[in-house]
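Archive entry: two folds, one per protein. Generate the first.
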Amino acid sequence: MGTVSGAKGIRGVGLTPDELRHVVGLSGVFALRMLGLFLVLPVLSIHAKGLLGATPFLAGMAVGFYGLSQTLFTVPMGLLSDRVGRKQVIVAGLLVYAAGSVISASSQTIGMLLLGRFIQGAGAISSAVIAMVADLTREEVRGRAMAVVGISIGASFALGFGVGPVISGHWGVPSLFWITGLLDLCAVVYIIAFVPKPPVEHRVPVSFRHIGSILSDRNLLSLNILMFILHVSLTSMWVVTPHILLEHWERRQMWHVYLPMILLAGLIMLPAMGLAEAKKKLKVLLGAGIAVSAAGNLILALSAGSPVQSAVGLVVFFVGFNLMEPVLPSLVTRFAAPELRGTAVGVFNTSQFLGAFCGGALGGFFLGHGRYGLYWTSLALTVPWAWAAVRLAAPPSRTPVQDLGALAELE
């Protein structure tokens, strides 16, 4: 009976009810965590610039500084999730992030804000969450599962960007950090009470020596480069662009730009991801995302003095970003060996958060040295971006049966 049931599940073309429940639950945890980041993202560089001891560069660093600690802790947390379990690592990371939120909310100086942001980043749960989504879904629907995660992040992005400027306009940016801490505690309760562990968690003797084999894999290395550049562009964009938008709109009015941007990007992303999976054209979708993001940077670079052109450029950039965001983690879970999936995702997310840190520094530099130069620099990064995409092999079509067989060999 178990074999028949398993065969039916493997032949299915959509998420099963159990898979959908698991994916939605984990997406909710991820969304609550990301909402905390997105609430402050459109206003943090403006707030940080007014703190005691702040400079334009340090204000930019405050936006991306969480990426430094994420870079340091993401791989160890992913590796730890492979050894002791995803759920334990996720709960611990959420508690650390909540502590960093309290420190950030209480900050009166730029140094304290940087410390709070660093501690926030130390709660590095993304690799464990994404690996757990992969653990609980079949390979042929994993891209859709990642798209659900992407939709939840997009929804939190829309909500954060919509209400963050409004809330901070009434009660100040520190109130956003208090909300973030509360949301993290809610996520802890939720994951303990409602999110199940994988049916079987295989404890394997993964160690740091396996990182070398992951870094030497051409496809995984290319994906790491793609994710790094993606988040350099994204974070630097949100250091500089809010200051440009403030020249045309009040802080409370910025949601008029952000909300249509999120809705359009989400409406395009989901059908595009589904079609690319069905036609086995994930690399084509990746290339399209790079091209659209490059077009957005070009529009922004040429938009000096034009509020409409600035808004259009931002929307175009984010549509391109959304085309790529669900593709990359899906490809990582396909190229990585099942027993090293959490570690591979940890290395991948390290490149993401290193990109966020470097993007904050890059944005902070251009905030004080010619803001529109950022968009030309981001446009130049399209060249290594495209090179990394071209190096990718066709995604493997490893079946769930093969994945289960590989895991069985470890027992």
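Generate the second and append.
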Amino acid sequence: MPMPHVEIHDRRPSVAGQFYTDDADALREEVRGYLAAAEPQSQAHTILAMAPHAGYYYSGRIVGLTLGKANLGQTILMLGPNHTGLGKPLAVWPDGRWQFPGGVLDVDAELAALLMEQEPKLTPDTLAHQREHSLEVMLPFLAALDAQTRIVPVCVSHPGLDTLLAVGRAIGRALRGYPRAVSILVSSDMSHFVHHELAKELDARALAPALALDPTRFFETVRGEGISMCGVLPMTLGLAAALELGATHAELTGYATSGQVNGEIRRVVGYAGLLVS
């Protein structure tokens, strides 16, 4: 009797050669350079990290400072925003591998299935991820830290605070009982296209409740003050999950704006790195 055909979902890079080089050797060297600038690895297990997802020229340094210091589990639950508007509001990439120039990372299909079983609002959907860059740009960093890293990519566009908090708590409960150590990685830039000084001011206001581990106040601050942080939804969800996992401490690993890189201070994007343990 023939075996039933099961489709495995491999993802090819969508922004290689744009956000980062598509030359595998050059990419490896660049990423190692960014990671080497980090402070010594944290002793405490990193429950959640937040890092930016712009082109490496702009934000690679902040990603390196953050993930280089993090003490990550071997499975990473990746939470990113949806810039394309495609797909489901809480879209889980269920299985297969994510490719990047020079390598692949396997999806932890067992954990993906568990999360969707525990929280039905999390649904299998690859469309939301096809052209989305926010999680893809993290892969070379995760692979450089540990080539055996497994990932569960989730694209978050659900706008409702109550749902984000409830789904975050459900994820936290599922991870708490999971036999392998898991860390959450939220991908987000901060303010978009405002003056450098205003970006610093707005971003400090957004980061304060995140550093205080208060997902409700964080969401209400970013939304209420019109701060154009693209990852407010995945970060709200991630903070709720982190609290469920017993998080008590958060620290800023770095902050910069694009204006500090290219000298154009009138219209910048802000980049911040956070670690939660």
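Annotation attached to the second fold: The chain has a mean pLDDT of 96. Residues 161-176 form the longest helix (16 residues).
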